[in-house]
Amino acid sequence: MAEISPPSFSSLGLRERKKAMTRQAIVETAKRLFEERGFSQVTVAEISDSANVSVKTLFTYFDSKDDLLFEDEKKLCHSILEGIRNRKSGESPFDATKIILWNLIHSINPEAILESLEGFHKCMETPELSSRLLSLWEKYEKELATLLAEETESDPTDPLPKIVAVQLISIFRLLGSSELKAYLEPIPPAMRQRALEKWLGRSLELIGGGIKNFALKQKET
């Protein structure tokens, strides 16, 4: 998955900045250890020791080692929900998703696309971890479906909000997939950025044909 930029600390108070910096340091340390040795070979104690914090401090920020592994995915999912929730008048969830996706792929270093897309996924060495990641994406699909159902005042039995949510989230899921990596890998490095843009454009074209006007946000009166 594409790298999620570290948070901006400039607007936070001193205490909040310190907490945000500690959290980020723990994540970066865990990421490095997972990539070097594999997720299952790294303990929470080793992460906390390398990050110069206590195990107790680590658990004030994260509930489990899994949370560290999937921190980038959680940040991305949160940004998707917020971007759709706060979209401009006249925009649909599809429009908001397009903006998020294009911003995301253009934040990737063109010379390191495969590495950026892979993200934590090089650590997915067991079926259990893949299953947990799938559960995470499904959780956010449900949250997005709930948001869309509330906005459109849909009947609880109406499948449309869930269908739209699944389609929108599917592109983000594929950005971190082994399938997309396999598609891009044979392409010369200098041409991968353009290939990724074409892949995304085609994906949006296919999905947008059916849902681009769903839940257009009305102007506030």
TrEMBL record:
DNA-binding region extent: 43-62
PROSITE patterns assigned: HTH_TETR_2
Family annotation (InterPro entries): Homeodomain-like_sf (IPR009057), HTH-type_Tx_Regulator (IPR050624), HTH_TetR (IPR001647)
UniProt keyword Protein biosynthesis, yes or no: no
Keywords: DNA-binding
Occurrences of domain HTH tetR-type (ranges): 20-80
Protein's name according to its UniProt entry: TetR/AcrR family transcriptional regulator
Organism: Leptospira idonii
